[in-house]
Amino acid sequence: MIFNAPFISVMILVIFGLYAMVFRRNLIKVVIGLDIVESAVNLFMVSLGYVKNGIAPIYTNSPGGAMVLPTPQALTLTSIVIGVATSAMLLSFCILIYRYYGTLDTRKVRRLRE
Amino acid sequence: MMSKIVRTQANFLYPFILIFGFYIVAHGHLTPGGGFQGGAVIATGIALVIVAYGYDRIKSWIKKSTLTATESIGLLCFILTAFIGIGTSFFYNFLANSGLLFGDRVSYGVNPGYLNTAGTLPIMNLAVGIEVLGGLGAILMYMMSYGKEVDK
Amino acid sequence: MIDVWLLTALFLVVWISLSAIRAIAGPTLPDRVVALDTINTLMVAIMIILSVVYREVILVDVAIVYALLSFVSTLYIAKYLEGGI
Amino acid sequence: MRNILMLIVFLTIFSFFMYVAINPGDFNSQTGEHFVFGSPKFTDMDNYFIHNAQNQTGANNVVTSIVFDYRGFDTLGEASVLFTAVLGVGLALRLLRGDKK
Amino acid sequence: MLADYLIWVFIVIGLTFNGLGVIGLLRFPDVYTRLHAATKATTFGSLFTSLAVVTWGLWNYSQGGDSSNIVLSIHTIIAVASLLLTNPVGAHAIARAAYRSGVKPKNAVVDRLEVKE
Amino acid sequence: MILDIIHILVLIGLIATAYLAVKLRDLMACAVMLGIFSFLLSLEFFILQAPDVAIAEAGIGAGLTTAIFVMAIRKTSRWEVEE
Amino acid sequence: MSVWDFIITNAPALAIAVPLLGAFLTPLIYRAGRKTALIWVLSVLSFTEFLALLLVYLVNTYGIQVYVFGGNPSTLVIPPDSRGIPIRIIFTVDGMSAFTALISSTIGLVAGIYSVASEKGRGAQDKFFALLLLLVVGMMGMALTGDIFNFFVFLEINSLSAAALVSYRIHGGKAVEAAFKYAVVSSIGALMILFAIAILYGEYDALNMAMIAERMYQTGFSTMDIIAMALIVVTLAMKCGAVPMHYWVPDGYGEAPGEISAMIMVASQASLYGLFRMCFTVFGLSANTHSLGWFLIILGLLSMFIGVTMAFLQHDIKRLMAYHSVSQTGYMLLGVGVGLATLGTSAFNQYGLFAMEGGIFHILNNMLYKGLLFLTAGAIIYRVGTSDLNKMGGLAHSMKFTAIFYLIGALAIAGIPPFNGFVSKLMIYESVYQLNPFLAVVAAIVSMLTLASFLKVFHSAFMGPKLYNVKEVPKSMLIAMGILSFFIVLFGIFPNIAMTYLVAPAAHALADPVGYITRVLGGGP
Questions:
Q1: Contact at CB, C76 and F36, closer than 8 angstroms
Q2: Each residue of G143-170: b (16+ CB within 10 Å) or e?
Q3: For chain F, is the Cβ count within 10 Å smaller at the N or the C terminus?
C-alpha cells in the first residue's frame, strides 16, 4: 500500500530545496532551501531504519516486537543540531550583508565580481 | 515587551518548561530524550522569556557572556567525562555495570528502568544539556542584540 | 472491526489537512498564524491518540514537548506583527 | 541560458533520484538492488545494538546508548559544531569598533 | 462496558468540536472570527479526545492492566494541561498583533478598541 | 491500512508546505510554512517510531528555527524582492 | 604506565582531543588576558604538532594504527560477540592520514604564530583563536577518522569554522558575502555527502569505511553505489576547488585574512584527502578505477589550465593567488588520478605509483609555498592596506625580508630547481608522460605560465619606485614565514627526507586498500 512513498517524497523535497537555493533571488530563501534539503535528508535516514510494524527502540512496558533500527535515529539527532547551527550562522551572515549592502537580492549582492 | 497576559503566563510557564527540560535530560537513558532535546526545550524556554519581556529587560538578567561560559563549561564536563575513561580508551564507559554511582545493572529485556543505571550516560546527558542550553540561548541573544546596542 | 483510535487519528489528520488549506490560502499573515496555531493543537491531540494506537506510553512525552513549546513560534510571529523584536 | 542549463542539470538529478526512490526492486527477497520501505537489507549492526546495548551500557533507551556510548565521539564533534556556530554568530554579530560603513 | 460508551462519547464530542473549529477556520470571513472558532473549538475538542485516552488508561488499569496505563493517563493530563495553559496565550497574542498590524474586523459595527486608543 | 493513509496524508502535507515555503514571496509566510513543515516532519518521525528525533525536531525545528528566522527577517526585509 | 606510554597508546585520540580541549578553554582563558590566551593557544598547537609527528613516527614504525573509541582495550576493533562487525567509531591512521594530519597541524601552528601580530588590536580575538583551533580539529579529524559519518561531522566543523573565519574582517560586507558563499557551498556539499552516507548505510548497514568496502566487494557494485559515489566524488571535488565547481574559491581565499587563506587552502586539501580516501579505499576495490582515474585526470587538467588562465586577469593579489591554488590542485588531481587510472595494472608499478608519489609530494609542497605566498600577501596587505596590485610598488625597498620570502615562494611554485616545487613537478611530468605525453605538455606549459604570473606580481608589487613609506612587518609574522621558507629550501635540497618518511608511506598506504581493510577487519576480502 505505502510502497516507497517516503523515499519519493524525500526526493521531491530535495528537488524543492535545491530549486530554492538556485533559482530564488533572496538569500533567506537560500537558507530556507538548505533547511528543506537538510530535513529531507533526515527523513531519508529515519525512513531507512524503519521496520514494518516495529516499535520504538526503547525498552519500556510496551508489547514486544521487532524494533526499529536505532542507528539512523542517532545519526539524525546529530544531523538536526548541525542543521540548526548552520542555519543560525547563515542567517547572521544575512543580517550582516543586509546591513552593509542594503539588500538581500542575489543579483545585487555581487560586489566581489567587479 | 508583550502584553501583561503574555508576561504573566511566561512567568508561570517558564518553571514548567525548565522542570520538564530537566526531566527530559535526566531521564534521557530511560525515555525518549536526552541532552540535546532537553537543552533545546530549555533554550526554547529562554526564547519564551526573551519574547515576552523584550531584549531591553532581559539583557540585565541573562548575560551573553554567562551563556557562552555555560556552554564552554558544559563542553568541558563532557570532554572530561570522556577523558576519565582514557585509562582504557577515550569515551570508555567506565561506570557502567560497576555498581558505583549510576552503575546498577539492568536485566535484558522489558523493564521499568531506574535512574541510577547507564554509567557515564546521565553525566554526559547533563553536560550536553547544559552545553546546548547555553549555545542555543547564546545564539538567540546574539541575534536579538544585533542592532539594539550602540556601536562604539 | 476497525480500531476506534485509528479512525480518530484519521479524522484528525483530515482536519489538519483542512486547516493547512487556510494556512496556504490565508490572505494575511495573521490568518496563516491562526492556522498554525490550530495545527499545533490538533497535532498534540493526534500524537496522544497515536501513542495509544502504538500502545507506547513514552510517546506521550513528545506531545507534552509539543504542547509546551509550539506556541513560542506563534508568540514570535505575533511580536513581529506588533512591530517588536 | 544559465537557467536552461540549470534546468537540464535539475532534470537529470531528478530522474536520477526518482530512479532511486521508485524502483522497488524485488519485493520478496532481501537482496534486491533498491531500498524497500519497511524492510532494510542488512540489519546485523543494529541488531547488535538492540540486543547488547541494554546489557553493556545499562540504558533502556537504545538510541541514547548509541548517541553517547557507541558513537559518543560523533556527539562530541556535533557539540563542537554547535560551539563553532555560536562562536561564528558571535564573531559575525560582534560590536564593531572602527569598522566604517 | 460503561467505559467503552464513555470513550465513544468523548471521541465523538472531540471530533465534532475539532471539525467545527476547522470548518470555522475555513469559512469565516476575517481573522478574528477565524481565531475565535479555531482556537477555542479545537482546544475544547482536543481536551475531549485526550479525556477519552485518560478514561481508556484508567479503565485498563482498573481491569488489572499494568502500571503503564496509569502513567499514560498522567502524562496525557500533563499534556492537556500544558495545552490549556499555552493555547489562550497564543490566541491572545495573535489577536492583539493582528489588530496592531492594521487588520480590521470585517462587518464590524462598533470597534471599541479604536475608540479607546 | 488506515495508518498508511495517515502516513500518505502527512507526506502530501510535507510536500505542499515545502513547495509553498519555496514559492511564496512574503518571507514571513515562508517562515510560517517552514514552521508547519517542521511540525509535520515531527509527526512523520513520530509515525516512523523515532520519538527521540521527534522531540528534537519539535524543540529545535519548530520552536527555535522559526524564532531565529523571524528575528533575521525583522533585521532584514520582509519581502523577497523589493519593488 | 608512564606518561610516554600513555601518550603513545592514545595518540590518535589525543590528536583530536587536545586541540578540542584547547578550543573549549580558549574563551574562558581569554578572560585572564590576551597574553595568557596566546601562550595557551600556541602551546596547544605545538602539542598537536608534536602528536602529529608522533603519529607519523608510529605509522612508519608499527604500521597502520587503529584506535577504537570506547573499546576495551582501545585496539579491540571487533568485539568477540559481534560476528565480525566493527560497531564503534574507529580511527584508522595509515600513512596518508598521518601525512594530512601533519600538514594540517603545521599550517595551524604557523598561522597561530603569524596571527599573534597580524590580528592584534581587532575585536573578538578569543573567538578568533578558538575558531582557529577548531579548524585544525576539523582538518585533523577528517584525516584521521575511519568512520564515514564521523568524516561528515568533521567536514561540517571544518566548513563552519572556516566560513566564520573568512568573515572575520568584515571589509565593507565583502568578506561576509564571501563567507556566505563559502558556507552555502560547504553546507550543500556536506548535505549531499550525508545523503550518500545514508545510501551507503541503507545498502550495507555499516558506517565503517573498511566494512563498507568489504561488503561492497562481496555483494557487487550496484546502482545505488554509483549514485553514492557520484555524490561523494563531485561534492568533495567541489570542496577542494576543482574547476567546474571552483567559483567559490577566489572569493573565499581572497577575502579572508592571509593566514586564514593559507589554512583554508589546507582545509581544501583535507577534502582532497577525503576524495582520495573514498576513491581508493572505499570504492577502489569494486568500482571501475580506470574511468574514475580519468575523471580525476580531466578535472585536474581543467583546473590547471583554467586556474592559471584566470589568474592572469586578476589585479587583486589574493584573488590571483587563489586562482593559482586552483591550478595547483590540478597538479595533485593529475598525479593521483594517473595512479588511480592505472591501479591494478602492470603500468601501476612502472609509473603509476611514481605519479602518485609526485601528486602527494605536491600536496606537501603546495602547503609550504602556497602558505608562504598567502602569508606574504597578508603581510603586504597588513602594511599597505590594499590588495590591489595596481596601487602597489617599491615594497622591496622597505620590506626586504618579505620580498625575499615572496621570491622563494614564487620560485618554488614555478618549479625552479633549488626549491621543492621542482622535485614534485618533475616527478609528475616524468610519470604522466608515460601515460599520455599530452598531459605532461599541458603541465609544463601551466608551470611556465605560473612563473610568468608570479614574476609579474613581483615586479608590480616589490619593484619600481618607492611608493609607500612602510616598515617591515612585526617579528612573529616574519618567524612564521621563515619557518615555511626553511622547509621549502630543505625539501628542495634534500627531497629524500620527505620522500622517505612522509610521501612514500602515504602513497603506498593509498595504493593498498586491501591492507587497510585487513588491518581493520582482521580478515579482508
A1: no
A2: bbbbbbbbbbbbbbbbbbbbbbbbbbbb
A3: C
